[in-house]
Amino acid sequence: MSTIIDYAPRLWEGLVVTLQLLVLGSLLALVIAFAAGLTRLSRHRLVRLPAAIFIEVFRGTSMIVQLFWFFYALPFLGIELPPFETGVVVLALNEGAYAAEIVRGAIKSRPAGQTEACIALGIGPAKRMRRILIPQSIPAMLPPFGNVLVDLFKNTSLVATITVLDLTYMGLEVRTNTGETTAIFATLLVIYFVVSLLLWVLMNGLERRFAIDRTKKSTRIKSWILSQPRGGAGA
Amino acid sequence: MISFDDVDKSWGPNHVLKKLNFHVKPAEKVSIIGPSGSGKTTILRILMTLENPDEGIVTVDGDELWNVERGRRIRRETTQMKLTRRKIGMVFQQFNLFPHLSAIQNVMEAPIQVLGMSKNEAHERAKGLLDTVGLGEHLDHKPPKLSGGQQQRVAIARAMAMRPKVMLFDEVTSALDPELVGDVLDVIRDLATSTDMTMLLVTHEMRFAEEISDRVVMFDGGVAVEQGPPQKIFQDPDNERTRRFLKAVLEH
Amino acid sequence: MTWNSEFALSILPDLLRGLWITIQATMAAITIALVLGLVVAVVRYLRIPVLSQVFGFFVLFIRGTPLLVQAYAAFFILPHYGIVLSALVTGIIVLGINYSAYTAEVYRAGIEDVAKGQWEAATALSLPGRPTWTRIVLPQAVRSIVPMLGNYWIQMFKDSAILSVITVAEVLYVGQTIGGSEFRFLEPLTIVGLLFLAVSYPAAVLIRRLERRLAISR
Known about the structure:
Chain B is of the alpha/beta class. Chain B contains 9 helices and 10 strands. Chain C is 82% helix and 0% strand. Chains B and C meet through strand 6 and helix 3 of B and helix 5 and helix 6 of C.
């Protein structure tokens, strides 16, 4: 165990990279989610179709395959990205595709009366979306967004396979140097678990903050976490 | 047939039954009226063992269903309770039909599983009962394919299939579209006049209650504020709260 | 240096063999997840003291940590304790255990989806516990459980690619190996992606349709 403490700075460096991936990846994923999700709601088929293809392709294949493809295959088409940037882009595209379906679903499930009321009040389509439909849909988006966020965080570990020096990569390196197999993996798992817990607590807090019906009985955090499906599944 | 002796029930700060004493004679038809949240439905649910009282004794047909001392932990599902419960049937506001079973399967299920009836016998009886409630044409339809009124009539047939001595009707027309209420009430009226079942109805259909009941009980704030023959209650109530309640519901 | 169809065609048989391993590994892992998930769900439903809390934490921990790290951990740690399994078996077990943490919740959610009125109707008809479960509750719960499970099966299929990192010879591993030895990654990795899509997209459509049908017949 003491050898692990010697290597703590290396793990810390890795954790910082992991958290950078988490923050940048989720911000970009959010942008992609709204762009693709709203495009899919368009009335015009030709606008809808590219968004639909993007979403189905990225939801239909594994993220690690996407990662390898962007890292190893894309250069053959003349596009070369550094490992870290590749990681951020693929994380964002993959989880953004899942989140796009959440955006689409939440907005689509607004009662028709809301749109009708806007038409009756003469509120145009753009303003209707921005001022009425999107704000109303946020509470419904938050719980599934939380799952996507935790999934995105866990998937950051995959970038270790394309030589990004994240927490997992550093852990594997420390293992090779010290041979401390059990201790190092236990440490890695606990670190990942603690960050996931923090993300769950954060999302649970956001959910309560944005809940339309604040009187809803608060559930205990553990049963709340357990009731969260894996991001994307069935969304 | 039914007796509640000093039965108490609270939901948190909400005292829904206050030392209730309430007795029903065999074959008597009793309607319970009153504002919502006044504990009417709780009476039926305690009889059906869907809720437990906090205190008091409830007997049905001479057998103890509940005997609860305050603070004592309640052990449910005793053999005695199960046997007594079989004498009672209940029809719910939301029908609660089994949606994956056809109308006739809904009616056959309990006689086969509980009374040990043969499939053929259960089928014959179920068919007869569904004919009686006017659903002979819909034996193989699943509940989602039926209208609310039809579903509720299947639910009545399902409860009747167990040959209960006591039937409980919990606001059975409240979830129905107005034009479907009549058919359901016709079925209940037939049961009331043609059988000697004891019937307990929680209802907002005042004219119907007046027509079929032997006795009407006005419930408010966890107590029976007034009871008597329907003519007396509806034409000339003694209690001020009864008068106000009837005025409100009959005038709209 | 763009797409070479001849090369692509020549490596297709190897990749299809890899896909077959992927499918077999997924099936085996699904079996583990179904059974273990049921055990976890029942223990937690019955609130068996200690064991219930232990499983609750286990589910939380599995959900909060990356599958990749779990796979590495099992692959490197188990041999230390004298448990020597092939990469494939290790991978199947890790994938199966990982998803049991999700399927456990599917069973619970499926049963909670059954309306309270159904239990009350069963009580009102004096149905005993066993027929209440086998004839009333479970047939209805299955309708919501099956689509949820189906979605997880597709996720498992896709996530099985992660097992390539511990040298399980599934389709991504085969693609990587070909890419490395031929110095051409475009064709093998593109085909790998298309193969995943070719299985998971129709499966997803099928499950969506099944879900709709089960929902309508309620």
